[in-house]
Structure of tryptophan--tRNA ligase:
Amino acid sequence: MGRSLLSQFVNLSSTCPRFMSYSTSSKLQRRLHLTQENHIPIVGGVSSQRCYCSVATPEPVISETSSTSIKKRIVSGVQPTGSIHLGNYLGAIKNWVSLQDKYETLFFIVDLHAITLPYDVQQLSKATKETAALYLACGVDTSKASVFVQSHVRAHVELMWLLSSATPIGWLNRMIQFKEKSRKAGDENVGVGLLTYPVLMASDILLYQSDLVPVGEDQKQHLELTRELAERINHLYGGRKWKKLGGRGGSIFKVPEPLIPPTGARVMSLTDGLSKMSKSATSDQSRINLLDSKDAIANKIKRCKTDSYPGLEFDNGDRPECNNLLSIYQIITNRTKEEVAQECHDMNWGTFKPVLTDALIDHLHPIQTRYEEIMSDRGYLDEVLAEGASKAAEIADSTLNNVYQAMGFLKR
């Protein structure tokens, strides 16, 4: 559930009785003006970054849910490492604002995942709060979604251990991201957590009996591991075996489906149109951070990599940077691909870059303003996270107790 639960929220990317929706406390309702006013308009679909594999099942069709129907549940999150950038926003957080109206949603800051690689201990707590504030500033509404910190719900770690006991080591050794990162860091510098964090991602998802998980194309392998683990646990401990131990029987976990949006799921680097925009990239010029100043945004767009072809166009394999910049412009201006293609077809880079710069500044300005308001009232943010963790823990603890029972543990 930046590297997203699931860019592996982060930036990673289950069956049980439905849980009731939660109402916001009266104390928080008095202060919700910070997040409920002037929501960002929805401008196209995106996917969750640190979300959570190759998926053999067909992707679900997203349909509107009526007010009387039971909403399906979605979980997702982003790591609090580095600065939240345009890729995290367009690839995850912005989509959440749309999803929260259609589904029961839980969005968390995946701080436990943030320690699998070297990190700044002094900055972790601060970055966690800042990431939560950006969730709200981007339009996540706490009257519709639960917002919390992963480490504040201890069931995540407990379930991870239980799942680890049933996870074949071969499944983890095949994870592409582990191979890549361990090769770069070297065996002597790689902690066990880097190998096992996909199990924690599975825990993040399965704890909440999630129906759907927003994932980017590069995170599908992690979700497939989650699906395989859910099926493995259901087979080993569910059904009649669980019923004989006093449980309800049947499946312990719901097997979640991937939710892969049609556009905006993969924002590329400003310096290399073939590489994903990333927090870990050495050069800050490769990304637009959500809190970048107007001058910084203008400078990055002015210096970003382009090409020497005439005109601008989508979907030319020889022009990845062109496709990336046009796609960003399309999403943040809430235009169709056809409209943008027609508008920009005869433009050159000298004409288009100022247009893109102005569009980015206009789009990010209200987010930055709300972020400053939220960060100026730390008590409000603490209340939001505490209430979100409390709601999440109710669901997570119910799932965890079922797992303990099905696996034969003595009842507490």
Observations:
- The CA atoms of residues 249 and 393 lie 23 Å apart.
- Residues 1-68 have pLDDT under 50 and may be disordered.
